[in-house]
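Worked example 2:
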Amino acid sequence: MKNIFVGNLSFSTSDTTVEELFQQHGEVHSVRLINDRDTGRPRGFGFVQMDKAGADSAIAALDGVELDGRNLKVNEALERKPRNPSW
């Protein structure tokens, strides 16, 4: 399983739209678009989880593709580094 970062999403793009786009390259296990904690508004990025072969194909094919008027930024998601609070 591989996690894919999808950036530069239009605020009007839905989970379903992203899933349909990525399904062209393999089985999509999950789609999670990120919303702001305080306002609930979309933040313009999300994550797609796919099998490795489908993920590699999707990354190669979809980086830079236009979706809802925006050119997507698609790459392998990196592990989030732990936050170090300064207080």
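The domain at 2-76 is CATH 3.30.70.330 (Alpha-Beta Plaits). Residues 63 and 74 are 5 Å apart (CA to CA).
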